[in-house]
Batch of 2 targets.
Target 1
Amino acid sequence: MNDMTPTNLSGSMPLAAPFVRVKDLRVRFVSREATVRAVNGVTFDLARGEVLCVIGESGSGKSVMMRSLLRLHPKKRTVIEGSMQVGEHDIGAVSDRVLSKLRGSTISMIFQEPMTALDPLYTIGDQIVETVRRHEGLGREAAWARALELLELVRVPSPERRLKAYPHELSGGLRQRAMIAVALSCRPSLLLADEPTTALDASVQIQVLVLLRKLQREMEMSMIFVTHDLGVAAQIADKVAVMYAGRIIEYGTVADVLNRPQHPYTRAMLASTVKDQERGVQLEAIAGSPPDLRALPDGCSFLPRCGYAKPECAVAMPPETVDARGHMARCYRVGVEGQRLAFSAPAIQPSVCTNASQLAAARAEMLGRQA
Ligand SMILES: Nc1ncnc2c1ncn2[C@@H]1O[C@H](COP(=O)(O)OP(=O)(O)OP(=O)(O)O)[C@@H](O)[C@H]1O
């Protein structure tokens, strides 16, 4: 496998103290018909100035986890447990009034589709001016000067003219830059990015990524970046979290996770996608499908798709195994050898276990052994 670190856009060493602390976060959506367990015990720390890329298949809980940091879920149907600390703020406990002050100023978010964030009825300039006046109390003139400065910062050509444009008058790439300008207008400490470059052409995508990484570093923002694209993660991340069925199943530095993947899911994902490319690589489907979040199994949620399953995998979710470098994986086949995580493959490659009766037999055998 290629070492992807030399082309990583990361250059700065993040500062040590965690700025974001998420501990045992659980999110479920409750309706009369079912309970969807979208996030099932997510824990991570993020230092100031550090970029965490969250990768995983569709439905693995990436967006739900991230949106929880802004409490964007429908209040009535959502149960959130665990803790989320951003700077000195306990996100789960702050009042709605404090939260609305934090949104856009301390924590900002950018989306795949800029029209989610931009108001079609107002010019780009009005939207930036409104945000900085509301959060920072700037006068009109100073706010316009800031808006101009921001469009220059995100390299929008002819910024004076673009300030007076409505979102629909801009190209996709310029709209994305305008959304980034609005998101950065109050100099947030934490930027949440939900696949912000996925909809763009490859060349525009890399320009926007380079720009984001540059601004993130200059402004010493922490950033959580959700992506399906392993190449994007390789380019932009300091740390990588791999999510599966609402859990982080592997976590570590970008080099550790992408060059020395330990969890069978991460290994399968990389084996099926990353060849010689360094970017523009989407996650390919792995045979089988993720579990139903309305009825999660007791054991490892990846078991039905895993080629390395052991009987104990059917009984309980594997605990976290962490090495001296902080590289973590949740798999019974992973242990620490010396100071590093090490995956122990069986002598004979087992066939993928996809059969419900095989699972039931494995579980029965394991429970019998424990009795
Ligand atoms: N408001 C909601 N009510 C019920 N279920 C929801 C809600 N929001 C998300 N979900 C479910 O939670 C699960 C996780 O969704 P999430 O959007 O976090 O996945 P994701 O990993 O970000 O996927 P994608 O990459 O496709 O965006 C999915 O099964 C989704 O259908």
Target 2
Amino acid sequence: MSTDGDPGASAGSSEHRRFVARIYRMRILGLGTGCIAISGVLYENGASLLTWMALAFNGGIWPTVAYAIARGSRDPKQAEFRNLAIDSICGGIWIAVMQFNVVPSALLAVMLSADKIGVGGWRFLARTASVQALACLATWALLGFGFRPDTTMTQVLVCLPFMVAYPLAISTAAYALGRKVVRQNRMLDRLNRTDGLTGLPNRLHWEEAAVTELSRCSRTRRPAALLMFDIDNFKQINDSYGHPAGDEVLRRVAASLRASLRALDTPGRFGGDEFGVVLGDTDSRDAMDVAERLRATVAAIRIEGLPDLRCTISVGVAFIVPRLDSVNVWIRHADTALYRAKQTGRNRVCTSGASWE
Ligand SMILES: Nc1nc2c(ncn2[C@@H]2O[C@H](COP(=O)(O)OP(=O)(O)OP(=O)(O)O)[C@@H](O)[C@H]2O)c(=O)[nH]1
């Protein structure tokens, strides 16, 4: 009995073991309090010793047996789904044994249904509800179609723990699951926006920052600049020192970027050995200073164990110009300037020329 779990995860995974453990805890609570509710009816109806023993088994021993079955199974998820169907069958039998005593029978049916929806949705409920109904009908026929729907006050009172504790537990589990989903969505969103190697915003995220900056500039008429830079002869670094050394260079360049920029600026990895920086509220002179500083910082990078490794960057700078209404055009201007820096000897800063100021 549970509202929690991910039936879609792969068999045998730790997620499935957690799912089984959560169901175990819920089953102990649900069947424990549920059997107390049933006992009120059995007591007043003068049930046989065999019926009491069956109830004791269902409430006290079955949760642990079900847990052991699921834990020992090669496919814990499927095993647990079978156990949940058995829960429904038992529920159907108890409803008939109670001769449809209305309050505990309705409670049992509702709680068992909530479980099934929580774990496997309405389709799973439909499947288990049909076996529950069949088990109920068969038991009812076997016991001679007894029908005593009236519920006494004592029977209502012994239903209270089930009525209160179990829905609270279901809500708590649903809330915890909801929080987990929100956390995982946030993490996914962060991963989607981050370059795995450098930890910088990836191209998509970085371009969003550029769009935001461009529209802010159009509104406020404040200056801004875009830097695009590319590591010089990076292929040669990879070829001479190996790919892991190339990766380390990329990480160190990213670290230099993070260390030397303001919170207002947005660095990003554009792809391969190409990076971009959005410099918010920055005029052309300051932008050139930042670009030169970056160039010098990267040139000073030294990698432990590789004393000969040197890396430089070529930087293209594009300022906001009048009637610039597309980030793609802004990036193209910076790219053209970067191309010029490469063409004129690398390890230098070039600008796209035009500026507002
Ligand atoms: N180590 C490493 N290399 C990468 C990565 N992504 C791209 N590269 C390599 O980076 C190199 C980029 O080379 P290019 O930009 O074509 O040229 P370059 O050697 O930098 O020369 P210039 O740009 O003209 O100075 C290619 O060899 C890519 O395989 C990465 O994540 N890690």
